[in-house]
Amino acid sequence: MSLGSLEWGRVSPAGGKALRFGGLVIDMPLLVLLLATASVGFVVLYSALGANTGLFLRQGVRFAFGMVV
Fold first, then answer.
1. CA separation, residue 46 to residues 3, 21, 34, 41, 49 (Å)
2. What is the per-residue pLDDT across 19-68, written as a single tens digit (0 to 9) for each?
3. Residue 29's closest CA among 11, 5, 44, 43?
4. Distance, CA of 64 to CA of 2 (rounded, Å)
5. Three-class SS of residue 67?
6. I want to staple 17 with a disulfide (CB 3.0 to 4.6 A). Which of 8, 28, 37, 42 is the partner?
7. How far apart are CA 32 and CA 36, in angstroms?
8. How far apart are CA 5 and CA 8, in angstroms?
């Protein structure tokens, strides 16, 4: 299979779950794994920082910006 044969916005017939927003398709299992991994990272970062929450907030803004983009 070559990359040229892939069709954007198609869900595999094997039963992949996806949300559709116009032409945008979001793979739900991948999104859940990404959010779970980021959550663990945020917990570790928060516990390592102690009272300094500035870095934690900046990292949260960067993560939110990356999700929107």
1. 40, 33, 18, 9, 5
2. 777 777 888 899 999 999 999 999 998 889 887 788 889 999 999 999 88
3. 11
4. 33
5. helix
6. 28
7. 6
8. 10
Residue with tokens 């116009």: 22
CB burial of 28-65 (b: ≥16 within 10 Å; e: otherwise) equals eeeeeeeeeeeeeeeeeeeeeeeeeeeeeeebeeeeee
Q: Domains of the chain: which residue ranges?
A: 3-68
Q: Exposed, middle or buried by CB within 10 Å (0-12, 13-18, 19+), for 23? A: exposed
CA distance 56 to 62: 10
